[in-house]
Amino acid sequence: MGRVACGSAGLLALALLAACSSGGQSGQPDGVAMAGGARGASVGFSPADKAANVPTDQTVVVSAQGGRLKSVRVDGGKAGALRGVLSADGTRWRSRGTARPGAEYTVTAVSVDAAGKQSESRSTFSTVKGGKTFDIETITPNKDDTGLTVGVGMPVMIAFDKPVTDRVAVERNLLIHSSKPVEGAWHWFDSSHVDFRPQTYWPPHTKVRVEANLAGVRGGPDMYGKRNVKLDFKIGRSQITKGSTNNHVLTVRRDGKKIRTMPMSAGQGGQWKYYTTSGVHLAMSREPVTVMTSPGIGPGSAGYYRLTVYNTVRISNSGEYVHSAPWSVGSQGSANVSHGCVNISPSNAAWFIKNTLIGDPIIITGSPRKLEPTNGWGHWQENWKQWLQWSSLKAASTNILP
């Protein structure tokens, strides 16, 4: 049938730790100002005491000589505290995460010397002031649009409310955790959209957590992230549907087992817009009722139609659906007569919408018209090498959920 215009809703990173190398005969780390006397442990701070205009992503380092650190706290008042990690020998603490712009932080370190004497040292620093903020406008999947159990092809899609120019800084703070190890990468479609997908489909029944730790992250000149966002979702069973415009049959396999075959009728061709696109589509929405209109043809013109269609599963942004088509049942299984959609019988359409998860792959072959990677959720139309070309940090394995 016809097209219905619809907009679509987008590496894995570890926190960057600033390197501090040893220098001089004293073993004092370069760039760390030491405080303390001969009678107690010497404590060093980086940034140095009273440092100003410190970048928000600079790692705070606290070091101890002649003793060990018992505790370290970095308090930013309303900006909150910075968390960190203490080394196994207790001599060095490093912050994790990003400071807030325009904030003043107080670093309080409690140290213990070789004789067991405890002392407290303090240092302050202030971060660079930020004039603008950016935020996550949408993140998909989500509870309202897709549900939190999705198909094995489902990408993570993030849209920002302002263009991002410092893609490396942002991507570094986008973390993917999963209950099963997955190799994956982020991909920038433009400066406001970044999406993640695995190299191959998600393993079935995988739990996934997205952490966008963007508060204070530099997104561009004088622009910093507004907040952190966390999302949990789950991958369901594996269901992959395949169909050919040549043999006119859809075959549904669940966890590798064939569970249903459905006669189909695809786009009739003739004009380019009337071909069903070939490629790896994803189920984008399930709509009990959809009003379809003729693509590029207005009311009163030859070929115009406006039709109410039932039990539809959207598979692209160019108006393609798998849907109920009682008027073409006689051609389903033998001929292509639609305006680009995949027609199936009313009973098959009722079954398909009920048994499809958003993100399930629906693969169509045989048509000369190829699905573009940017047409809806055509993420799997790019091979892995092509996908990585648009990633700032390339591929990495997901962090494993506890």
Name the descriptors.
402 residues; mainly beta; 9-stranded mixed β-sheet; 5-stranded antiparallel β-sheet; 3 helices; disordered N terminus
Description:
5% of the residues lie in helices and 42% in strands. The protein has helices at 167-172, 346-355, 384-388, and strands spanning 33-35, 42-46, 51-54, 61-65, 67-75, 81-86, 92-96, 104-113, 118-127, 132-134, 136-140, 149-150, 156-160, 174-178, 183-190, 193-198, 207-213, 218-220, 223-225, 228-235, 239-244, 249-254, 257-263, 279-282, 285-293, 306-314, 321-324, 342-344, 361-365, 396-397, 399-400. A hairpin with a 2-residue loop joins strand 15 and strand 16. The longest helix has 10 residues, at 346-355. The chain starts with 32 loop residues before the first strand and ends with a strand. Mean pLDDT is 90; it is low at 1-30.
In short:
With 402 residues, the chain is mainly beta. Helices cover 5% and strands 42% of the residues. It is built from three helices and 31 strands.
Low-confidence stretches: 1-30
Beta content: 35-45%
Mean pLDDT: 90
Cα end-to-end separation: 47 Å
Give the helix level as a range of percent. Answer: under 10%
Largest sheet: 9 strands, mixed
Rg is 28 Å
What structural category do the secondary elements indicate? mainly beta
Shape summary: elongated
Number of strands: 31
Number of helices: 3
How do the strands of the widest beta sheet line up side by side?
A: 1-2-4-7-6-5-8-9-3
